[in-house]
Amino acid sequence: MSDKYNSEDQSVLQKIQNQTGCLLLVIGVAMLAFVLTDLVGSGSSIFSSSENNIGEIAGEPVSYDEFNQTFEGLKAQLIQNNPGIAFDENMSKQYQQQAWDMIVESRLIEPEFEKLALTISLAELEDLTIGENTHPQIQQSFRDPETNQFDKQRLIRFLKEDINTNPDALQSWNSFQEQFTAGLIAQKYNQLVTSSVYTTDLEAVNFGRDNNQTKNATIVSLPYGQHEDSTLTVSDNEIMAYMKAHSTQYKDEGNRDIEFIRLNVIPSKEDSMDMMFQAKEISEKFAETSDDSAFVSIMNSETPFNKEYQRRGSFSASVEDNIFSANVGDIIGPSQENGVYTVYKVIGNGTDSVSSIRGSHILINVSGTDTAQAEKSARELIAQIKSGATTFEAEANKKNYDASRGKGGDMGWVRKDSRTYPKRLVNRLFKSAKGQYFVVRSKKGVHIGKTTSQASRKTVQVAIVDQKIFPSTKTDGEYYKMAGDFLTKVNGEKSFEEVAEELGLTKRVANSIKEGSLAIPGVSNPNSIAKWLFDDASNEGDVSSIFDIDGSYYVARITNIKPEGLVDIEEVRPVIEEIILGEKKSEKLFAKMNDALGKSTNADELAGQLETTPVSIPAASFTNSSLPYVGRDRVITGTIFGLPVGGQSEIIIGERAVAVVYLNNDNQYEATDAKDLKTQITDQSKQEVQQKSRQIIIDNGNVVDLRYRFYN
């Protein structure tokens, strides 16, 4: 319930370390990005209590302490290298995920490095810092401020002299060196994996042939979908046997169903009035301040201070004219729109390099090439608009299919160099008087246009203070009381649905919720509900307490708990029935095809015996295995490419049909240069192997993520 109401010689690098006691590299933003994307060893303790475990990797628990230590380390690095940064909720979630990924990789990937004895020698590390091949990320942190070029002497001087003035040098250097070395080892591992990939000349030739060659063939088929047989049925036992035979495909890790109600806490009229009263006080202070940037920041404005000059079309239509007609220092607002109040202050005027104008249009589609008729229709429509028989806005909403649809044809403010609308239309807007209708052609059709403003080149510099209108404590309490009333009644004799209907609430359902991949439609952050839902003490039929999630109150009931095993037979019945029916049909159709084939010598005769039509395929290809009247069938397509010219196949039991294939001809094609193909195939294969090798290790590591138990 809510808390509210209830053995090598010493290297040069080593000698420097020994002389200075420690080393430090100032890790800038670029270095931080490098560090965070590489692997980090955890080295954290794991408690025996399962209640403290935040997950499991390869059968070993991951403690909250280990995870939090990794997360706080990342957070500290970010703040250290970005003083003053606001570490908000979104960033917290991002770095929580980063911390989890690092622990997963350190547990599963780093042992692979050890098995292969991958290390970074002192000579390598020296070469990549003060040697001939300083790493680009280190170079980035030691550039000459005037030339912006890497200054190695500055780096050496820093390591020998400047380091002694910083008491955190040793800790910072050790942290960096550990992560930097781990990243280099990871690079070695990737290079080792990808170096095993190569492409032979034959593979390149075959690849080019398979992707470019087509074949002319004829097929006689009996598609499964076109041969219904009421005598064929599929029993539950057959479906279950199929599922067990393919258990990895139909495995269910277990899931739970719930029904729930949601009360969105919406600000009342009184809340809006109170906030607007505060906004008026803010506007008075805004007018008096001389430091607009600081004022916007202090007021925690949703829109940060922007020193750029804005042109027409940059602001809400309801206030834009007022902004552009205001003097420097004037306050516009407060105004309220979409649950946000806004105060504007004009702090500067400027001139745009290109003019802007506002206009509207109606697009008359051209039928065929009859543009003259479309122009005639446009002029007739103008006459109807002028007579009052219809309106410009209504016709635009019916005929337009661009951004002006639903806006009465309003194009907004358009710059003279805009490409959003046809150039001819934009040019006529600038040449026409305000309110005057005109007709102009474009590649899109014929337009009825209307200029709705004077041309403008004015720009303004505007400071904005805007804040969301939040519900008051009183309003929040009323919604919480409603949730409490619901909870009281649903624990009585009436059903969940009956209580929801009685109180005018909508009952929602969420099925097949899995602990390993949390997702509840209609709930932005399901962690709180998941903690209750997957608690060992929760049972089918249990009703939750009140959940307070992102400004809404929820009450839920568990409607079904399904343990780990095979998926529910009803979920996969249609798919498996089709597969099994296809297998049964193939047996009957094979016999029918075999009988007809014994009485035939060619495709036409075979088709005649089967009372069907042979289908010509002039350009069958591997890249498109869809066959007429059959669909995508890789077995039949593969058979086509396995036949010699003039050859006839045996009876094929395909994915979608039983068929016989006759190959008429190999079509000519232009062969691709094998050298280029080898490079292309090898590069692509390296990327795939690198990704798959890591993913396979992680998949086999049986990763269980239970972070939802600790974080909302």
Describe this structure in words.
It is a single chain. The chain has 4 domains: 12-194, no CATH class; 214-245 and 571-666; 254-264 and 472-562, Chitinase A, domain 3; 270-468, Roll (Chitinase A, domain 3), CATH 3.10.50.40. The chain has 24 helices and 21 strands. Helix 3 packs across helix 4, helix 10 crosses helix 24 and helix 11 (236-245) packs across helix 21 (569-597). With 712 residues, it is an alpha+beta fold. The chain is extended, with a radius of gyration of 36 Å. It is 43% helix and 20% strand.
Per-chain topology:
Blueprint: H1 12-20, H2 29-36, E1 53-57, E2 60-63, H3 64-81, H4 89-108, H5 110-115, H6 122-129, H7 136-141, H8 152-160, H9 169-194, H10 201-212, E3 215-223, H11 236-245, E4 251-252, E5 255-264, H12 269-288, H13 292-298, H14 317-325, E6 331-337, E7 340-364, H15 371-387, H16 392-399, E8 410-415, H17 423-431, E9 437-442, E10 445-451, E11 456-468, H18 473-490, H19 496-502, E12 508-513, H20 527-533, E13 547-549, E14 552-562, E15 565-566, H21 569-597, H22 603-609, E16 615-620, E17 626-627, E18 631-632, H23 634-641, E19 652-653, E20 657-666, H24 674-699, E21 704-705
Antiparallel strand pairs: 1-2, 1-21, 3-16, 3-20, 4-15, 5-12, 5-14, 6-7, 7-8, 7-10, 7-11, 9-10, 13-14, 17-18, 19-20
> How many domains make up the coordinates?
4
* Major sheet summary line: 6 strands, antiparallel
Low-pLDDT segments, ≥5 res: 5-48
Stated plainly, the CATH topology of the largest domain is called Chitinase A, domain 3
Number of helices: 24
What's the CATH architecture of the largest domain?
Roll
